[in-house]
Amino acid sequence: MIRLAANLSMLFTEHDFLDRFQAAADAGFRGVEYLFPYAHAPEALASALRESGVEQVLFNMPPGDWQAGERGLASLPGREAEFRDGVIEALRYAEALGCPRLHAMAGRLPESADSDTLAAHRATYVENLRFAAAEAARLGREVLIEPINTRDMPGYFLSRQDQAMAVLEEVGADNLRLQFDFYHCQIMEGDLIRHLERQFSAIAHVQIAGVPERHEPNVGEVHYPAIFAQLERLGYAGWVGCEYRPAAGTREGLSWGRDYGLAG
Ligand SMILES: O=C(O)[C@@H](O)C(=O)CO
Ligand SMILES: [Mg+2]
């Protein structure tokens, strides 16, 4: 069964952040995800979850200075202490929100990156992910890594599926898993169903959006009904994060999800 989660960083932005939980529930979503919870007290978020009856399915660890263009810390040499503090802070929120999985963003390479820079990022990434996975395991949580397309995020360290699979293997932690975002994979590599099949056992969460505009999933070059059918055939039991920017209003664009329980 396809279970849809609303990404509250992109959907329902017509509402104040804490009101988006109820708006998502009213539209038929049973789960929510978003980039970052840290601007709000965990108690306020927990009460928004409780009152709306939706589950918190995912959020991201602190990403460094987002306004300054940072996109995660996990692979950044010299920022290990900050990354590790962020892991502890994210786990504190995960406990308060009952959230089972956390995304650790990798960060960007400098423009001048050479092979030594790449090797240093890779070594830092592996060590930091080992730390994050061990801390998360003590609390029964998962840590996810997500390849992101370098057109939207130039220089992002983790951009390809085989790179992510090699990192998962090298870290070797059962609770370190893959966040498979069909939008990013289509832009970087295509061949979505074959990637899904090959990586299925590593996948803990998937996300969708239309390509190339990142609007509703029924607009653009990806045929999501075939992907949903394949997820069902494979027995996918996780959530499908709806991480797209509505072309007009959020509610106005939900008709694509009628077959999956949305009030479009
Ligand atoms: O795909 C994305 O953009 C997100 O899942 C994310 O976590 C980083 O922006
Ligand atoms: Mg994503």
TrEMBL record:
Q: Which domain of life is it from?
A: Bacteria
Keywords for this protein: Isomerase, Pyruvate
Iron listed as a keyword: no
Q: Name one GO biological process term.
A: glyoxylate metabolic process
Domain Xylose isomerase-like TIM barrel span(s) in chain numbering: 21-259
Residues forming the catalytic site: E146, E243
The family annotation for this protein states:
Belongs to the hyi family.
Instruction: Give the protein's recorded name.
Output: Hydroxypyruvate isomerase family protein
Give the source species: Billgrantia tianxiuensis
